[in-house]
Specification:
By secondary structure, this protein is α+β, with helices and mostly antiparallel strands. It folds into three domains: 266 residues, no CATH class; 176 residues, 2-Layer Sandwich (Nucleotidyltransferase, domain 5), CATH 3.30.420; 83 residues, no CATH class. The protein has 15 helices and 21 strands. The strands form three sheets. Strands 1, 2, 3, 4, 5, 6, 7, 8 and 9 form a nine-stranded antiparallel β-sheet that branches. A hairpin with a 5-residue loop joins strand 17 and strand 18. Helix 1 packs across helix 4, helix 3 packs across helix 4 and helix 8 packs antiparallel against helix 9. The protein is globular and about 100 Å long. The N and C termini lie far apart (85 Å).
């Protein structure tokens, strides 16, 4: 079951077939909403006392029978609507009164939960409301109903404390602490029957609502009511196989007719426990969701959670910054509006500038409403985008459950700036959207306790220290987590996501399901370490060749010819340092290697400084050259870099040498090694004294002018 907000874009008067303009249709819907609002408000105000709430909380009537689940029937069983009558001279049908009574019953039943919390707080009122002792907390927990969060306790405590500061005594109950709840101008059509409203679907994107609306603000008889047919544009989330239910009708300030349309579709059943692969998400400020994958394994009687270490991040930095700026603008507009209104009220109507201040306050009020609407739209779009991303990630990774932090245990703390950014998040909407989309995909969603998820290390459960991110040291915030016990160093939200998925998978047998809403919650904290398992790397080219050689039959002798090549690889011509030399100029008795040219043979140095060449070289080359010649272990002049000398490293690592050897084999470049006496500038590092900007390897190389072979 879900609710989609739709818009009625066309209205027709059924009796004559005349099309009703949008302004007149909006006015008639407003008449019906105003009649329902006035009747509901009067009914709630007449029963806003402790005795009436006690009767409603008991759930039985005067004869001892249980009250029905439908609100309007329960109120009529108690004979409460008889005390409230419509305005004299106003005619409304019994179906309209049903909708108003249903709205009043829902409002009063919602107040029962707040009343139970206030009663428990007053019964266990501490000596110091700002700081309770352990005994006072135990007494309060015993008096509270099950499932009450710490945030609700703090909010009600602050409310009672403000009342005590103003009146000097404790309130006797909820009805004294706060006034009757305000009701909105909306019509609950679900409490009415076919004599007042009908709904049918026309096609995949359109539905038709048939409702009886008043033609004037105070209808005096049934002739002032007429049937209207309204077309509803369905959003893309309402698919063709969904079942539509009777909506709630309400006019908006933007001048449109909105309908909150409930719709349902059969969802696959999901299991409560027995999950092996789960996805845990942690809430953030800029990164709205940070998740990680966890896999539950068993070794004997010991259970542990494995993870691949890959973070899943939904980065909403841009949208979050836009929302924060728009909230600041909203507060600024509200302050200017109140200031102009105060100036107008202080000057009075006879003053010449009174009208100017009043007109400016109206303009600021309209701009404030536009900014608020923009914020609501951005929040809704951001919430559903994050929910769709999270469910898609779970489906792609094969996870059967999604674990989230329990939102009722979270409360923004710290500085004002952090509180504003944190309290403005759309976490509740994201959670409901994830539950809705995950139910369609057959994925379970459960909440876990949020306390301590960022305080302990997911690998060893040791204390974590928080620091600025190493790649963003100039930014404010403690984004990075480090464990002094096991040396873990990673993103703070990523570490918390590991703790969340571990708590969910290890404590999934303690999952409880709410019968009314169907939400799954884990209130038992089971902490365990998360073991990092590296993902298998992709097969390299060398490994693929090896596997192909092992699986393929032996290749016959002859030139190499593969499927990707149209001809065999020609033999490399002989020459020096990769320079092309015509075949006719090569020595007739010279044998070259198929893999490497003969220039790979390194010259040797003697104590006398005379270099002797191995046999097989060109006889036209001089037999001896004075001074060392660049080769294996000998530096070429002009190739020593200042930064390499300052580094103090005289020998390259074995890994670097092997990498350069393979590069030389591919390109034909002569490979040089650095000795302990003469350090060598890395061929693949900075060149020409540039110590900050690395350069890539050269693909062509020309020998020095003094080098001869």
């Amino acid at each position: 079951m879900a609710t989609a907000t739709c818009t009625a874009f066309r209205g027709v008067l059924e009796s004559t077939g005349e099309r009703v303009v949008q302004r007149a249709l909006l006015e008639r819907v407003g008449f019906l909403a105003q009649l329902s609002q006035s009747l509901t408000g009067a009914l709630v105000a007449s029963r806003w006392d402790e005795e009436s709430l006690d009767v409603l909380a008991a759930g039985v009537d005067k004869r001892g029978k249980a009250l029905p689940s439908k609100g309007w029937m329960a109120l009529r069983r108690l004979n409460w609507p008889q005390d409230v009558r419509p305005t004299a001279g106003v005619h409304m049908s019994d179906r309209v009164r049903r909708g108003a009574e249903e709205y009043a019953a829902r409002t009063l039943r919602l107040a029962l939960h707040r009343r139970s919390i206030v009663t428990a707080v007053l019964a266990a009122w501490p000596a110091d409301p700002r700081r309770r002792t352990e005994a006072e907390w135990a007494a309060l927990r015993a008096a509270l109903p099950a499932g009450v969060s710490g945030a609700e306790i703090r909010n009600r405590t602050r409310q009672v404390r403000a009342y005590v500061a103003e009146h000097g005594e404790l309130p006797t109950g909820l009805c004294v602490l706060e006034g009757p709840p305000q009701v909105a101008g909306q019509v609950l059509l679900a409490a009415m029957d076919r004599q007042q409203v009908t709904l049918q679907r026309v096609d995949e994107v359109t539905a038709r609502l048939r409702v009886k609306l008043p033609l004037r603000a105070a209808p005096a008889s049934g002739r002032d009511w007429a049937w209207h047919v309204l077309d509803i544009r369905l959003p893309g989330t309402v698919t063709a196989d969904t079942v539509l239910h009777t909506p709630t009708l309400r006019p908006t300030r933007a001048g449109r007719i909105a309908l909150d349309l409930p719709h349902s579709r059969p969802a696959p059943a999901v299991m409560t426990s027995g999950h092996r692969v789960g996805l845990g998400f942690d809430w953030g400020v800029n990164t709205l969701l940070t998740g990680t994958l966890g896999r539950l394994t068993e070794r004997g009687s010991v259970q542990r959670v494995l993870t691949d270490g890959r973070p899943l991040v939904f980065d909403a930095t841009t949208v979050s910054g836009t929302l924060h700026r728009m909230r600041t603008l909203r507060e600024h507009l509200a302050a200017k509006r109140d200031h102009c209104q105060a100036l107008a009220d202080g000057l009075g109507s006879p003053h010449p500038v009174w009208g100017e201040h009043l007109e400016r306050a109206r303009v600021l009020e309209a701009e404030h409403a536009r900014v608020c609407a923009r914020i609501r739209h951005l929040n809704s779009a951001l919430a559903w985008a994050a929910a769709r991303w999270a469910v898609d990630q779970a489906a792609a990774l094969g996870a059967s459950v999604i674990y989230l932090e329990d939102l009722t245990t979270l409360e923004a703390r710290g500085h004002r700036r952090g509180n504003a950014r944190l309290s403005g998040q759309v976490r509740g909407t994201v959670t409901e959207a994830i539950r809705h989309l995950a139910a369609k995909a057959g994925i379970a969603v459960a909440t876990v306790p949020a306390r301590g998820t960022s305080a302990l290390c997911p690998g060893c459960l040791g204390p974590l220290t928080h620091h600025p991110a190493p790649d963003r040291l100039h930014e404010r915030g403690w984004k990075w987590a480090h464990c002094t016990r096991c040396g873990l160093s990673m993103d703070r939200d990523h570490a918390a996501a590991r703790r969340i998925v571990s708590r969910g998978l290890l404590a999934q047998d303690h999952t409880t399901t709410d019968r009314a809403t169907g939400t799954r919650t884990i209130r038992t904290t089971v902490d365990g370490t998360v073991t990092l398992v590296r993902r298998p790397k992709k097969t390299t080219r060398r490994l693929r060749r090896q596997r192909h050689a092992e699986s393929s039959p032996p290749r016959p002798h002859g030139p190499k010819n593969t499927e990707s090549k149209g001809r065999p690889t020609p033999s490399r011509p002989s020459g020096s340092h990769g320079r092309h030399v015509p075949r006719a100029t090569a020595a007739p008795d010279h044998k070259t290697s198929r893999r490497m040219p003969d220039v790979r043979t390194a010259p040797a140095t003697t104590p006398t400084g005379v270099v002797q060449r191995p046999a097989g070289h060109d006889t036209t080359t001089p037999a001896a050259v004075s001074g060392p010649v660049s080769g294996h272990g000998v530096l070429a002049p002009g190739r020593i870099e200042d930064h390499f000398l300052r580094s103090g490293r005289g020998r390259l690592s074995r890994r670097t040498c092997r990498r350069r050897t393979r590069a030389a084999e591919r390109t034909g470049f002569h490979h040089l090694h650095a000795t302990e006496v003469h350090p060598l500038t890395p061929r693949f590092g900075p060149q020409h004294g540039d110590h900050t900007r690395p350069r890539r390897a050269r693909k062509t190389w020309k020998p020095q002018a003094h080098t001869e072979f």
